[in-house]
Amino acid sequence: MSVRSSLVFCVAAVLFALPVRAPAGDLYGAYARALQYFDPALSATQSKRLAMRAIAEADAFALDARLVVALVAVESGWNPAAVSPAGARGLGQLMPQTARDLNVDPADPAANLHGAVRYLRALLDRYAALGLQERYERALGAYNAGSAAVDRYGSVPPYPETQAYVHKVIGLWRRLAGL
Which residues are catalytic, by number? Predict the structure, then answer.
């Protein structure tokens, strides 16, 4: 991550202590502003639609919407057209096989977001027997490096990219939550 990207995350965290519950208009507006901060190319309509989708998906899968915002911010910067050098696509940076397994179109922002949240929920369920912190760390590590790598090492794999990824997502989630 570049210095500019690190600064964006820090500034966004200060500006957006996102509420878990608020009147719907206020809630969607706060999330939409956060998404536009991460991706200024999003129109007001796009950011509101994505904010509503993120909140709905988080609710449907019993996740904190701020975690979803943090994960997608780290994955793609909320750029629906993002493509990684490894071929991961869209908001949740789903790999082609993962998107197929989830039966989602990675090019469709709503479907990609649904797949990303569903995949994160499955990973959290996979590590449900662990303590809360370890559970989230392993699930995020598996989101980045694959569950086989997490299982092989019995923790977040010792890959610098994955270690940094887990730290960034959890750190941004905490900042967005105002912790």
Answer: 75
